[in-house]
Amino acid sequence: MSSTYIGHEDAWQQWRRALSGERMHHGWILSGRRGVGKSAFALAAARELVAEPGVSQSDGDHPDILYITHPPKNDAEAKKREDGKPFESARNIKIDQIRRLQQRLTTRPTIGNRRAVIIDPADDMEDPTANALLKSLEEPPQGTFFLLITHRIGRLLPTIRSRCRVLDFPRVDDADMHAVLAREAPQAADAMRAAAIAAANGSPGAAIDFVELDLGTILKLMEQIATHGDPDFGLRGKLASAMGARPKREKQLAAIELARAVVSARMSSVASGDIPALVDTHAALVRLGGQAPTANFDPGLLIMEIGTLLAGLAGGRSAA
Q1: Domain count, the chain
Q2: pLDDT attached to residue 316
Q3: Which of 182, 294, 308, 315 is most buried by its number of CB atoms within 10 A?
Q4: Whether residues 28 and 159 fall in one domain
Q5: Are 231 and 319 contacting, i.e. CB atoms less than 8 angstroms apart?
Q6: Is 248 helix (H, G, I), strand (E, B) or coil?
Q7: What residues in the chain have per-residue pLDDT under 70?
Q8: What is the pLDDT of residue 165?
Q9: Distance between alpha carbon 106 and the CA centroid of its chain, in Å?
Q10: What is the pLDDT of residue 320?
Q11: How far is the C-alpha of 264 from the C-alpha of 297, rounded, in Å?
C-alpha cells in the first residue's frame, strides 16, 4: 500500500531504503505545506512498517498504528463525534493525549513486533506537551517508531528536531495543480482556480479546500479593495458579510491566504515605488497566517484587519 500523491516519490524512496536497512531510525518528521498529502503518506508508510511476512494484518484501523490529532474542543463536541456528527476540534494536541499514549507504549504491539505512532500535526503541541513527547523520543520503547507530521517545522522544539530524520514534501508546481483542480473541481471558474492555486502555494489539498469554501465573492471584494480602496468602509462591510457571522477557522485561514495571493498577484504589475507597500502588506498577512491557527481572534475583527491591509495598497484613496 502507498499513497499516490504528486511529489511523494523521493519521500517513498528514502522511507523504503531505510525500512530495508539494518537499523531503522525511530523518529521521523514529515515536513511540508498543509495539504500536500503528508497524512496519507504517514498512514501508508506506517502500514508498511508494522507489516511482517506471514502475519495477517488488520483491515481498517490497525491496532499497532496509533494516530493522535486534535481532540474535540469540549464534552459537547466529543458527544457530536461519538454520534458521528461534525464536531469542532481543539486548537492544540493536549498533554493528556501524550500521557495516555505513553501508558499504551508500556505494552507490546498487538499483532507483530513493531508499532507506529503518528502525531498530526506535531507543530500544534504546546511546549509542555512537546516536552512530554520528548521523553518517549529520547528513550523509545523497543519496536516503536514515531512519524511527526508538521506544516511548520520551525515550531517544533529543536530537541525534537534533533532526534528525528526529516522527510521533505515539496510544493507541487502550478501545472500539476491545474491538473488536480481540473479533475477534482471541474465546476470551478477559471478565476477561482487561478486564485486557489496562487493562495495554496503548491498545496493541492489547500487549493481544493479554497474552491470548496466558495470564496469567489470574497476574492472579488478583496481585489476591489486593493485596487480602489475603501474610504467609506462599505466594501469592508460587504467583505465581513460574505465571510459570515461565525466563519469556521478553516475559512478564516483561507481568507488570509487569499488576501496574500491578491497581494502577490499585484507584484508584477505595479510601479517600483509601490512595491515596498506590497511587501509590507504581504509580510503582515504572513504574520496573521502564522498567528491565526492558535490565536483566539475575533472573526469580524480579523476580516476587517485583512480588508484594512488591502485598502492601504490604494494609497490616498483609502481612509486610514
Answers
A1: 2
A2: 42
A3: 308
A4: yes
A5: yes
A6: coil
A7: 1-4, 270-271, 315-320
A8: 97
A9: 31
A10: 37
A11: 24
CA distances from 15 to 45, 60, 114, 156, 211 (A): 8, 22, 16, 21, 33
- Identify the pLDDT of residue 96: 96
Q: Which residue bears the cell 478583496? A: 222
What domain range includes position 157? 9-169
Instruction: Please report which residue ranges of the chain form alpha helices under DSSP H.
Output: 9-19, 38-50, 75-82, 95-104, 127-138, 158-161, 174-184, 190-200, 204-212, 216-228, 234-243, 249-266, 275-291, 299-311
221-256 per-residue burial string, b: 16 or more CB within 10 A, e: under 16: bbbbbbeebbeebebbebbbebbeeebeeebbbbbb
Fill in the amino acid letter for 231: P
Residue 204 makes CB contacts below 8 A (sequence gap 6+) with 5, 6, 35, 36, 37, 172, 176, 177, 180, 181, 184
**Could you tell me the end-to-end alpha-carbon distance of the chain, in angstroms, rounded to an integer?**
56
Any domain includes 221? yes
Measured between alpha carbons, how far is residue 316 from residues 264, 270, 313 in Å?
Answer: 21, 16, 9
Examine the domain organization and report whether 164 and 255 are in the same domain: no
C-alpha dihedral (153, 154, 157, 161), degrees to nearest 10: 50
CA Rg, the chain, in Å? 22
Given this model, what pLDDT does residue 201 score? 81
Quote the pLDDT of residue 319: 39
27-32 and 144-150 beta bridge pairing:
parallel
pLDDT digits (tens, 9 = 90+) for 260-275: 888 988 877 766 777 8
Residues 255 and 152 in one domain: no
The cell numbers describing 241, all together, are 458579510
The full DSSP string for 90-137 is PSSB-HHHHHHHHHHTTSPPSSSS-EEEEETTGGGB-HHHHHHHHHHH
What pLDDT is stored for residue 1 in this prediction?
Answer: 46
CA trace torsion 47, 48, 51, 54 (10° rounding): 130
Backbone angles phi and psi of 168, in degrees to 5:
-95, 135
pLDDT score, position 254: 86
Same domain, 119 and 222: no
In a domain, 130, yes or no: yes
